[in-house]
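User: I'm putting together notes for a lab meeting next week and I want to include a structural view of one of the chains we've been expressing. I don't have a solved structure, so I'd like a prediction I can at least talk through. The sequence is below, exactly as it appears in our construct file.
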Amino acid sequence: MSCLDSPEVLTRVSRRALLGRSAVGFGSLALASMLATDAAGAPSGLDPLDPKVPHLVARAKRVIFLFMKGGPSHLDTFDPKPLLDRDDGKPLPFAKPRVQFAATGNLLKSPWKFRQHGESGSWVSELFPHLARCVDDMCFVHSVHGTNPAHGGAVLKLHTGSDSFVRPSIGSWVSYGLGTDNGNLPAFVTLCPTLAHGGINNWGSAFLPAAYQGTPIGNASVPSDQASIRYINHPHQSRAVQRLELERLKAINEQHRLTSGPERSLEARINSFKLAFRMQTAMPLVEDLSGESAATKQLYGMDDPINANFGRMCLMARRFAERGVRFIQVTHSDSKVQWDQHSDLKNGHEKNALEVDKPIAGLLQDLKARGMLEDTLVWWGGEFGRTPTVEGTNGRDHNPEGFTMWLAGGGVKGGLHYGSTDDYGFYAAEDKVHIHDMHATILHLLGLNHERLTYRYAGRDFRLTDVEGNVVQPLFA
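Assistant: Thanks for the context. Below is the predicted structure for the 477-residue chain, given as structure tokens.
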């Protein structure tokens, strides 16, 4: 007979043994991190993911981050350059950056035509015919710039604000600052994330309490219809028995607190067990798309094998968003092409754009139709752009000096074009927006002051934007 079947022997079970026993079958990777570290949790008796009051009036309640791994070319998507077309094959008429990832040659025009769309007259290349119909809801930032020309550093910078140290990810900061609107689901979910170029650090909580790290569902090498949270179902015990274990674990903890005082790390572990227990019911309901109409699935392109994988992730993002998850990341990546076209730019970008164009447009249209786009901030971009100069015969190199991101919903001005790169698209030139500025702006839209959102660690107050970052107010509606 199990020791848990008899209350008389409860005091003979160590907390360590019961923690280990209870952990079997609970399905969050965040839980594994909590058990593997001594990260401090919330003050005794409080769930660290309880909703928190924002610093400011929030325009957005949640973020959906559409991460285009590898660095899509702004010059071939949303930032047309007539002079690049005119001077194709000629030398760049000014100096290239002092630090470059690879050697490049003369100017290379875009293989795609651009047209104006919507009431805003926004220029979009023929790579994105579906997104072109959504431009009046999109706010384009054409002057984003970073500091690192290598994927590893640039991806970490984009996700954590640092390209050289392990720091909490933006989703973890948002979870820390706001908590969650649904205690049955994680505050931060990342769908099919890449395991390369920083891997778990891109959704990790670093020195923040482990409750705030992202929960990955699958990874980039797993088709989205096979992506799931491991151990979401307990293979041996009913929910009734699991609930009994948690109640008795709580009783042991209360007894320990009376005699020895609170242990914040223990509280974090127990909170993780409670969340994982609740997720066993909530998570399968989110992942079950059987209730979605055929028309909705078609809107996301799930009836087309080319769009189905990314379309499912975008639909899942909407389902998590409407259930109160605070930060949802959707990654477009694969082990071969990604958006990293050092060669064969035309075929590579056409493949990638074809996979994501309809699903992203479907997401925007679906959110808008449901009245969710008003308080959901959709953020699109990669870790950098591409050079206007050619690499090899038909590719573009990494370019962190100037590139485009766009936002939609969540309190930003639709149809706005902010900032610009130079005449050939190499450098951010007008109204420059650093990655720190983008982070500060996203936090502000969520009601968080990036200078006040701090965490004390190792003798200093850390924040996502370090000691930099300015909110880009002109983007706001």
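A couple of points you could mention at the meeting. Residues 1-13, 15-45 have pLDDT under 50 and may be disordered. The radius of gyration is 24 Å.

User: Perfect, that's what I needed.
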